[in-house]
Write a structure and sequence with these properties.
The structure holds 4 protein chains of 4 kinds. By secondary structure, chain B is mainly alpha-helical. Chain B has helices at residues 34-52, 58-79, 116-139, 148-167, 171-189, 196-227, 232-240, 252-267, 276-279, 285-294, 299-306, 308-313, 315-338, 342-362, 366-393, 413-427, 433-447, 453-478, 506-521, 539-546, 558-561, 570-575, 589-614, 616-628, 630-640, 645-691, 699-723; strands at residues 24-25, 86-97, 105-114, 403-404, 484-485. Chain B is built from 27 helices and 5 strands. Chain B has a 3-stranded mixed beta sheet. In chain B, helix 16 (413-427) packs parallel to helix 19 and helix 23 packs across helix 24 (616-628). Chain C is α+β, with helices and mostly antiparallel strands. In chain C, a hairpin with a 5-residue loop joins strand 3 and strand 4 (241-246). The termini of chain C are far apart. Chain D has helices spanning 11-34, 38-63, 67-97. Chain D is elongated. The termini of chain D are far apart. Chain D has one domain (11-104): Helix Hairpins, CATH 1.10.287. The chains are: A mainly alpha, B mainly alpha, C alpha+beta, D mainly alpha. Chains in contact: A-B, B-C, B-D, C-D. Chains C and D meet through helix 1, helix 2, helix 3, helix 4 and helix 5 of C and helix 1, helix 2 and helix 3 of D.
Chain lengths: 520, 730, 315, 110
């Protein structure tokens, strides 16, 4: 019952905002999202299947029994964690853009709440149609948020964002429908329940079919992640999006792609994944190094952090493709950690933008002396995303790389990547240090440079509200950095289930690709 | 020299050479966690002081107290320590098991591994930390209100990270300490963040260290994929089971030592990656003393000592270490000679001395390296602090040509004389601590057989001479000669009138004296009797190193097995009996080394005295002559320009990457985005424009289109009726 | 006969037509015309080789003459610069079509066509042509307006026309085979009998013409075909069974009978159509007064309702 | 008594008639699509009517079913109605722009 409640509360909030005067919009939005967070925590507490891979928050409302479509919701530990991340980021996003937006308030908060419903819908969906509809619906609010509240050429950015992602996900829809159809042929009755389709796809389909479905699903999810060649919409969308939009885009929307990989691609088409994993791995590595070098030469801070997201998510994908528990643990942790640290970075950039209305590192710098609290948080979160041990970035990055390294055919899950993949990706760690420290060196340290004649009614350094936004994220980073154990044990079960179909599929496939036991 | 002094009771324990593997898991020693906890507490408190903008010296007191506490704890830990060492679990960090197989679990927790090697390190780290914090409390006074607590927070973070590095029981926690120390040095080098040079130096330090960390990370992955564990005790059990283990073949076991070496060179500023250390002098002097002379830079040596068994698997790696160490020592010494900034000279001397330590590791005398680390920590910290005192007193003046005759000035006598002691030790003057520790290394260079170790030995001796020269060049320039000075550029409080240097007060003087005594006393452990094993020579430090995985490098053990292939386990080879001792000039190499390095040291000293004390003009004349001779002019210029290494790196690595970045960015924006994505977007519009004329509105064109369409359909139907589908008869 | 030949003939005809349409000078048009007609003739020859060949050379000859005359005048019609000549040529087309109809034994329709088409419709066209051709000022009299001199680019038009022709050719050469012909005279008589049976009043009128003959009620049995004659059984004045001979109806009566028998409703409808056309023409052609350009734009812009409410403006 | 009732109406002669009607139709279409004078265009439609009439009668004769010819009557009515209305419209168009050129009317464009 809680699952539906989680999705309904933001809707109710949106309706309330629509009915109330625009002054009250902010308050209602905050209340709604805090209520959402409360429910999420409540759900987490009484969720009994931490670590066992079981499913909680079950809810099933048959919508179209003939076609086997029903509003089926449910969450295992991974979906629960990602949903918690979403419900945590929502109130912070609203609090973060308290003074950022002044006109069309109701619309702004209305769209944010709808976005929250869609995101939670994606993570809780147990029915393919519900998943796809929510996956698509996330585009609409984000489009309006960027198109209306963005900065200079927002129209072009939002249009490209929407069409690019939408086109990609159409291919994914084709893939899903083919699986559903094949399942109906095989089983006689139509069913869109994810467990049935996953079970059927992994066993019933030939490798050729799986290959095509993999291509289709990857078209949809690769655009969302974003993976290397199809990432060009992200920097545009980020630089134009308002603060709350950027935070949610980086914090949660990018995770839809990787969650899609985790929930659909890996379990559904194991043989094809094994066959294509090296190729996708190479794409991820190119993404890491390519985006890192681009970050290094950026002058616009937000574009730099956007490209850094491309680079970081390359690690996450690499972890998934390692096809062993270490890699998957690393990538699921990465989804959460990246959400926290990059979300915070976007908040900080937003706060700087509100005060100086510029993001160009050339015209602004040396804020350390003028804004010490802001600088402390900036350095803290930069180090979290650089992957300083003791903070959350390191744990996930380390596990992803270790997983990729070990995926050379030694453990019980002989993967198809190997040491050379991990070594190339590890270079990304050095590049990450280079571009992030360069950015911190320019903005925080050095002599103070301020754009002339910029007035902002916000105090020079952070006020209580802004600190309140950043503190939970900082605590999250530290706790996940020092004590990742409780999360890792929590998701052990669902990772084992995802990899359930791999030892067998892998052994025969790897015969072709990798000599037994030897390093590639 | 028979061991003379046996006064420390603890050393009288005698225990068989028990393999280190079965360390006792003793949770009751969890109070040892204090060493880690105290710096953390002081970090938090200093953070609060920074938040509350505390104006007093409270942060310094907090940090000093916590470090002293840590030092006392480590001493206690040392006092009731049994040889095989204990594992003290503190806190869970990462342990994953997804199967029962060897490679299906990964555990890495916050737990301490107390054995003699880590105890040796932690004691001098915390000890020096405390002294330097006291020194810094006075040195940092000008920044009392502004960055004082931020500085001491940085020092606490550094100590926490160093402790974690040294005491960790698995490679991952070592990695945590490793990066933590790198971050702390970034924090402290960039302390004066208004100065762009400091910010650039901090960034450079962190990135070069990060390259080293990359090596360590890859090593850890390789170790886990090959051995299935990253815990020291489990690793040593694998090694104890002898080298005939399925995991040992394959390219991984030979790659691991080279990756570990890359990490050590990054952190301990050796040849390829030393460029960050001289720039790190931008940070405040206590930082240079603590981090870039005594503690952090020795982490590389600790890492290699701790993982020495991997190196023993691959003899080639040891030869590489020896040669890199030797070359770095020589290179740094040559650069050191040509510099004018005394802190930079000390920095290059540190690089050079570290080269010695690596040479020691390379020539299988981990004891020599460890002992040199021990002594070097004292006298190098002392030299840095004296330079700090001078800089503090003369308003930032560091150029040795601008200050001279310090010993005649009132209030500077302690600084001058302590500096002399430091210089003597650094130059390896006979009977000083530096002398004994350097000789232990130099002698072994001649004892151990390896490719070109002879040449390496003579090169090291020549470098020792250069070291003596440039050390006393500083001392004679600054302390001896007529008393004269020019104030530096940091005239922050010139209250009118001529600027008169303010001599260091009690805190700095007290620390300088203590350190001077320390560097003298550091010679004593060499003379202590060796308890661990009668064949041992090298006193207390040898005992400490003996009980650790670095045992392979103890003199008396070393010369046999390194040479043979690792066919039989190195335990057996050690007891097989002594091969013939190679002799040097007919004497035992150690004894011979006393005389040779002694004379070389004195020669260097006299040369420096002649050029920089009695006949300063002669020094300038020689320099002018060198510059005038075209065929030799390049040499001094290159030495002064630090052999153009920075420019080389910039040209070979930084510039190409920067250009590549721009190329990628342009490629990303125009090719992928512009051509592919927007290109595809333009296709529909293009097709629409092509079809547009059909809708031009003229009646007849519409009619033509309509009729044409109908005609085509009818015709196709008719033709298909007649000719059937594609020629097949209907 | 290679199946592709008719299409080549069509192509030749199309090229001819193209030359005629796009040529400037008369002789070239002539040559084009000849080529077109040659193509058509070739087609006719090819058609001749279809099953049952040509039954009656004379009849086919006449048919051929009328056909070629029709096509030639049609070509002239569309290529004539002056619209009036085009209309006149159309009259020629109608006449030759009537000739063809005569050859197809549709005599009534032939003459109906001449009367209605050539007579009425073409005259209306001539009238409107005369009305719309007034030269704006005196010195332009006789000059052909630009839109008549050059036709629109004929290539596309001829191509579409050729495609339609090809379709018809395809149908003609392949499709006709499986159409069932009307059958022989006997079948035709039976058809006439069936037709007469469906018109009882007509049969009574015929019967009444032969004196003293009364019809027995059941037409189905009494009206029969014997030999090649149509026979009606009944009783004559003196009560004996007698049969009278019905002549098979001529073309006109056939048309009339089938019109009344099978298309009564359509007949009424045709009338309504003509009525509506008359009303339309009257409403549309009401005397409209010149509008100034600006009022016109405003009228269109304001969109005030239909075309009808225009104000009277004095001359 | 049919005066010239020829016994058989062969498929070839039917083909001739059909070809004639096809020729007339295509010439009509060519004319309609190429001539720019509105009235001549409508004349071409009349020509197409002629083609249809020929085809109708030919098939009527082939089947010996007089509905073909009956239908010709209806074609005539339609042709007449069409002529009347079309010419009325042409007159209106002429009055509007005082020209019969079809190219003038391009307001239909979007």
């Amino acid at each position: 019952m809680l699952g539906v409640l989680l999705m309904v509360v933001p809707l109710v909030g949106a309706v309330a905002i629509a009915l109330s005067p625009s002054r009250a919009a902010k308050g209602i939005a905050l209340v709604a999202t805090l209520a959402g967070l409360g429910i999420a925590i409540l759900a987490a507490i009484d969720f009994s299947d931490w670590g066992t891979g079981g499913w909680g928050l079950e809810y099933n409302l048959p919508l179209l029994p003939a076609m086997g479509i029903s509003l089926a919701l449910g969450a295992d530990s991974v979906s629960m964690l990602l949903m918690l991340l979403t419900t945590l980021l929502m109130p912070l996003a609203i609090l973060g853009s308290w003074t950022a937006v002044s006109d069309r308030l109701r619309e702004y908060y209305g769209w944010l709440l709808l976005l929250s419903t869609a995101m939670i819908g994606v993570f809780l969906a147990r029915d393919l149609l519900v998943f796809y509809i929510c996956f698509e619906f996330t585009l609409v609010p984000m489009y309006f948020l960027i198109a209306i509240y963005g900065s200079t050429n927002r129209a072009w950015a939002s249009l490209k964002f929407f069409i690019y992602t939408f086109l990609g996900s159409l291919f994914a829809l084709a893939g899903f429908l083919y699986v559903a159809w094949a399942n109906a042929e095989h089983a006689g009755a139509w069913s869109f329940a994810i467990p049935d389709l996953v079970h059927f796809a992994s066993t019933g389909l030939t490798t050729g079919e799986q290959g095509w479905i993999l291509l289709a699903l990857m078209a949809g999810f690769a655009v969302k992640i974003p993976l290397f060649p199809v990432h060009t919409w992200l920097p545009l969308a980020h630089t134009e999006a308002p603060t709350a939009g950027s935070v949610l885009l980086a914090g949660v929307l990018l995770k839809l792609g990787t969650y899609g990989l985790f929930r659909f691609v890996l379990p559904m088409v194991p043989a094809a994944v094994v066959e294509w994993a090296p190729f996708m791995g190479v794409l991820a590595i190119i993404g890491i190094l390519y985006a890192a070098l681009i970050c290094w030469v950026q002058t616009d801070v937000k574009k730099l952090v956007a490209y850094s997201s491309v680079s970081h998510l390359g690690f996450c994908v690499l972890g998934l493709l390692a096809l062993n528990p270490l890699g998957l643990q690393g990538s699921v942790l990465y989804m959460i950690n990246h959400g926290l640290s990059t979300g915070a970075l976007f908040f900080l950039i937003g706060m700087m933008y509100e005060r100086y209305h510029t993001r160009d590192m050339g015209t602004i710098g040396g804020l350390g002396s003028k804004m010490p609290v802001w600088s402390f948080f900036m350095v803290f979160f930069v180090l979290a995303s650089v992957g300083l041990p003791g903070l959350n970035g390191f744990v996930s990055e380390f596990l992803c790389l270790l997983g990729t390294f070990a995926a050379g055919g030694t453990g019980a899950y002989p993967g198809v990547l190997g040491p050379w993949f991990a070594a190339a990706a590890a270079l990304g760690m050095v590049f990450a240090a280079m571009y992030l420290l360069l950015m911190v060196g320019k903005i925080v340290f050095g002599s103070l440079r301020e754009p002339s004649g910029v007035h902002s009614d916000l105090p020079a350094d952070l006020n209580a509200r802004e600190i309140l936004v950043l503190v939970p994220l900082a605590i999250g980073c530290v706790v996940l950095g020092v004590q990742p154990d409780f999360v890792m044990h929590a998701i052990e079960g669902s990772i084992a289930d995802t990899l359930a179909s791999y030892p067998t599929a892998v052994t025969d496939a790897t015969e072709i690709l990798v000599g037994r036991g030897g390093m590639p | 020299m028979t061991p003379i002094l046996t006064f420390i009771p603890k050393l009288s324990m005698s225990a068989p050479a028990v393999p280190v593997s079965d360390a006792i898991i003793s949770p009751n020693l969890s109070w040892a966690g204090l060493i880690l906890l105290l710096p953390l507490v002081s970090l938090v408190l200093c953070g609060l002081c920074a938040a509350m903008r505390v104006k007093s010296k409270l942060p310094a007191v907090i940090t000093a107290a916590s470090l002293a506490g840590a030092f006392v704890t480590s001493v206690f830990l040392y006092l009731n320590y049994e040889p095989p060492g204990e594992v003290i679990p503190l806190l869970d960090w990462m342990n994953l098991t997804w199967g029962e197989g060897r490679f299906e679990s990964f555990t890495a927790n916050f737990s301490l591994y107390i054995d003699s090697l880590s105890l040796l390190w932690i004691m001098f780290v915390t000890g020096l930390g405390t002294l330097i914090t006291i020194y810094a409390s006075e040195y940092m006074e000008p920044d009392l209100g502004k960055g004082y607590s931020r500085f001491f927070a940085g020092v606490s973070v550094f100590l926490f990270a160093m402790a974690a590095l040294v005491l960790s029981d698995n490679l991952l926690m070592l990695y945590l300490g490793w990066e933590g120390v790198g971050f702390a040095s970034y924090w402290l080098i960039g302390y004066y963040f208004e100065r762009p040079a400091a910010v650039a130096a901090a960034k450079k330090a962190f990135i070069v260290n990060r390259i080293g960390d990359l090596g360590l990370a890859l090593a850890i992955y390789l170790i886990w994929t090959t051995f299935g564990t990253v815990q020291y005790d489990e690793l040593s059990t694998i090694f104890a089971a002898g080298s005939m283990n399925p995991e040992f073949e394959g390219w991984t076991t030979s790659a691991i030592p080279f990756l570990l070496m890359l990490a050590a060179f990054g952190k301990s500023a050796q040849l390829p990656l030393y460029v960050w250390l001289p720039d790190a002098m931008e940070g405040p002097t206590p930082v240079s003393a603590l981090i870039h002379a005594a503690t952090m830079v020795t982490a590389g040596i600790y890492l290699i000592a701790r993982t020495y068994q991997f190196f023993l698997l691959e003899p080639v790696s040891l030869h590489v270490i020896a040669w890199v160490g030797g070359l770095t020592a020589l290179l740094a010494a040559t650069i050191g000679m040509a510099q004018h900034d005394i802190k930079r000279i000390m920095a290059y001397s540190t690089v050079s001395q570290l080269g010695y330590m690596f040479l020691g590791l390379g020539v299988l005398t981990t004891y020599g390296a460890a002992y040199h680390v021990f002594t070097h920590a004292f006298f190098k910290a002392l030299l840095f602090l004296t330079c700090g005192a001078i800089m503090h007193g003369f308003a930032g003046q560091l150029d040795l040509r601008k200050i001279s005759g310090l010993r005649h000035m009132k209030g500077w006598r302690i600084t001058a004389w302590t500096m002399l002691i430091g210089c003597l030790a650094l130059a390896g003057f006979p009977l000083t601590s530096g002398f004994f520790s350097k000789d232990a290394i130099l002698a072994e260079a001649f004892v151990t057989q390896g490719p070109g170790f002879e040449i390496l030995g003579w090169m090291a001796i020549f470098t020792a001479g250069l070291t003596a020269y440039y050390t006393f060049r500083v001392w004679f320039r600054v302390c001896a000669g007529p008393a004269s000075f020019e104030p530096g550029d940091e005239q922050h409080d010139d209250h009118g009138g001529a600027f008169h240097p303010h001599a260091p007060r009690f805190a700095i003087n007290m620390v300088l004296v203590l350190l001077a005594v320390g560097s003298l006393v550091a010679a004593v452990p060499y003379f202590m009797s060796n308890q661990a094993d009668d064949r041992l020579v090298g006193g207390w430090v040898a005992d400490m190193v003996h009980d650790s995985p670095a045992r392979g490098g103890i003199p008396g053990f070393s010369e046999t097995h390194a040479v043979h292939a690792i066919a039989d386990s190195h335990e057996a080879a050690a007891h097989a009996g002594e091969a013939a001792h190679p002799t040097l000039f007919g004497m035992d190499p150690h004894a011979a080394m006393y005389w040779i390095s002694g004379t070389v040291g004195i020669v260097g000293l006299l040369l420096a005295a002649w050029l920089h004390l009695w006949r300063r003009s002669a020094a300038d004349a020689i320099k002018a002559w060198l510059y005038s001779q075209f065929w030799i002019a390049w040499l001094p210029r290159a030495m002064e320009r630090k052999w153009y290494v920075d420019e080389f790196y910039h040209a070979v690595i930084r510039a190409p990457l920067w250009i590549l970045g721009h190329i990628f960015y342009v490629f990303d924006r125009f090719i992928i985005d512009g051509v592919c994505v927007d290109g595809i977007a333009r296709i529909p519009r293009g097709v629409a424009r092509w079809l547009q004329p059909l809708q031009a509105g003229a009646v007849q064109s519409l009619a033509v289109v309509m009729a044409g369409g109908a005609a085509i359909i009818l015709l196709l139907m008719a033709l298909f009726m007649q000719f059937g589908w594609f020629g097949g008869q209907v | 006969m290679d199946p592709i030949l008719p299409y080549i003939a069509t192509a030749v005809g199309a090229i001819g037509l193209l030359i005629v349409l796009s040529a400037r000078t008369a002789p070239v048009r002539g040559v084009g015309g000849l080529i077109g007609l040659a193509g058509l003739a070739w087609l006719f020859v090819l058609a001749g080789s279809l099953p049952d060949g040509i039954q009656d050379a004379v009849e086919e000859g006449f048919f051929l003459v009328f056909a070629l005359m029709a096509v030639a005048s049609a070509v002239q019609m569309i290529s004539q610069r002056r619209p009036v000549y085009a209309a006149l040529f159309f009259v020629l087309v109608v006449l030759s079509v009537c000739g063809v109809l005569v050859m197809l034994e549709a005599f009534f329709m032939a003459f109906a066509l001449v009367i209605v088409y050539a007579g009425a419709i073409l005259i209306t066209y001539m009238f409107v042509l005369m009305l719309a051709q007034q030269a704006t000022d005196t010195e332009h009299i006789g000059e052909i307006p630009q839109y008549d001199r050059e036709s629109r680019d004929p290539r596309a038009a001829v191509l579409v026309a050729a495609m339609f022709m090809a379709t018809v050719v395809a149908a003609a050469f392949t499709g006709l085979g499986d159409l069932t012909p009307a059958g022989d005279a006997q079948a035709r008589l039976q058809a006439d009998a069936a037709l007469l049976r469906s018109l009882p009043k007509q049969v009574e009128r015929l019967a009444a013409k032969s004196n003293g003959f009364t019809l027995n009620t059941d037409l189905a049995s009494s009206l029969r075909v014997e030999g090649d004659e149509l026979v009606l059984a009944g009783t004559n004045a003196d009560g004996g069974a007698a049969t009278i001979l019905l002549s098979s109806p001529g073309n006109t009566s056939h048309v009339g009978w089938s019109l009344v028998a099978s298309f009564p409703a359509s007949l009424e409808l045709a009338g309504v159509i003509l009525l509506m056309a008359m009303f339309g023409a009257v409403v549309l052609a009401r005397r409209q007064v010149e509008h100034a350009e600006q009022e016109l734009a405003e009228a269109i812009g304001a969109g005030r309702g239909g075309y009808g409410e225009s104000q009277e403006v004095d001359e | 008594m049919s005066l010239l009732a020829s016994e058989a109406f062969s498929q070839a002669s039917l083909a001739h008639a059909i070809l004639l009607s096809g020729a007339l139709l295509s010439i009509g279409i060519a004319g309609f699509l190429s001539r720019r004078n509105l009235i001549v265009m409508f004349l071409c439609t009349e020509l197409m009517f002629q083609a249809v009439i020929v085809a109708m009668v030919a098939f009527g004769r082939w089947y010996w079913d007089f509905s073909g010819q009956v239908f010709v009557i209806f074609i005539l009515t339609v042709a007449a109605a069409e002529a009347a209305l079309a010419l009325a419209l042409v007159v209106l168009l002429y009055r509007r722009r005082s020209t019969l050129d079809a190219e003038v009317w391009t307001e239909l464009r979007e």
